[in-house]
Amino acid sequence: MQALGREPYPPRMLGSLAPLFGVLLGAGLSALIAQAPATRPISRWQPPGHQDRGLPKPDAVWSPYDEGPQHPANRVFAAIWLARLQPAEVAAALPTEHSGASKFFTNGWYFKKRDGRDGDERWFGGDGLQLPRERFTAAESAALIDLLLAIDGELAANLRSRPQSCIWLQNDLLRTARRLLDTDANSELLLPLLRAAERLALPAATLEDASLSTFGLESLTAVEPALAHGRLVELDRRSSRLFDAEHSLLWSRVFVQWPETAEPDLQGYLEAAANKLQPSIPLQTRAVLIQGLVAIDDQGRPRATSIAIDVRLQIFANADPLSVANTTTTHDGIAFRAFWLERQTLRERGANLKLSDFRELADEDQVLFRDYGSLKHTTVAAQCSLCHRRTDTPEQDLAGFPVLRRTSEPKSHIAADTRLRRAEAEFERFLVALRSAVK
Ligand code: HEC
């Protein structure tokens, strides 16, 4: 794995190591490899080189909340998080959808797509962060209700005795309710989802216990040496809908590392932006986005927990033109690394997690995103580039950092819990909507 922003920009992501592993194995070093943690769930995702790279393998076995794959909680997971479906849209960025990379990576590559059609059906979802389900058939819904009813009594108590997994399961149930509210489907599921989530509720003191934490800023340097914990400044901002906990059910915090010698400095930039000016973002500006779980406690109140599940790194690496040779994520100078925690990793590792235990997504990994309200099969790189590119936008000087947009009202000097309390207030609005929908 290479560090972001080295020149020339290196080919990134785990996939590029695959040939090396082959060589090592060939050289008879398999014993060395075998010592790697056996639980690392790489094999559940389609590997580099596969046409569906990054999608769940159809025959994978998922045990996110309990080691028994048939545990009712795991079956709830399979019902919600695994779906074989035909996407509404298919992006041209998929390897089977375009030829000639040098011709393809020109203006607008990230927009190109077509409608889904027969033959596009795939398995989507898995132990990730993008929920593939939009609705359930009557039979699926009835089966899911039975499973939700099974999360009760001793079984629920056992789940509550493992707070991290329990919190995520609860968040997944509520997230499904959120989705069904959004798609106006399966209203019969809302009450069973809410009641099961309530049976998984833990006391506020447990939810706020710092020992649940899965991530600290100090762990960033190990995966990205140019990021220095002491130089990251947290920004408050007006969240877009994508990061509003009423919709995401997650808290989100953004930190920026401004280049040391840049003029103006970060404070100067923020003041200018507040005065309706917006200086250009300097090269080598970096950002970290972290999202984590909000839970409801046993009194029905939202609590932001210290379980971070999504860590994304960004750098303005170069201002070279858009081309295939510009090997940043956007191909126009903005590079990302995305780390998603898997539920199973959390269950197995608990408090001993490092950022390197998170699953790192490759630019070319495929995911079913729903950011714009329709299920779209695309690559990580194409999706991130939609909102974080330099080209084809009137805001080239923003260098793909929406948090620094004047209208986001970015502010420094915020308390460490500002964003967490905000997320709880946003989440409360979701609860009000859900509770009134089940009345
Ligand atoms: C639909 C638009 C959209 C998509 C798609 C999107 N983002 Fe963002 N992202 C935003 C917005 C808007 C913000 C600003 C924060 C806020 O609104 O609260 C942001 C913030 C960020 C930040 C913090 C610094 C910044 O740029 O402001 C990082 C890092 C980030 N996103 C990474 C990613 C990655 C990686 C992907 C792809 C997996 C991605 N984003 C996809 C809209 C998007």
Overview of this structure, please?
The protein has 439 residues and is of the alpha+beta class. The chain has a domain at 14-47 and 88-122 and 210-437. The chain contains 15 helices and twelve strands. The strands form three sheets. The chain has a six-stranded antiparallel sheet. A hairpin with a 5-residue loop joins strand 7 (286-296) and strand 8. It is globular, with a radius of gyration of 22 Å. The protein starts with 17 loop residues before the first helix and ends with a helix. Bound molecules: heme C (HEC).
Structural features:
439 residues; alpha+beta; four-stranded mixed β-sheet; 12 strands; 31% helix; globular; disordered N terminus; binds heme C
Silhouette: globular
Low-confidence stretches: 1-38
Structural class: alpha+beta
Question: What is the straight-line distance between the termini?
Answer: 52 Å
How many helices? The count is: 15
Small-molecule binders here are: heme C
Strand content: 15-25%
Biggest sheet, in brief?
6 strands, antiparallel
Integer average pLDDT: 91
Largest sheet, order of strands side by side?
5-6-7-8-9-10
**Approximately how much helix is present in the residues?**
25-40%
Please give the number of β-strands.
12
| Helix/strand order, N-terminal first | HHHEEHEEHHHHHHEHEHEEEHEEEHH
Q: Radius of gyration, rounded?
A: 22 Å
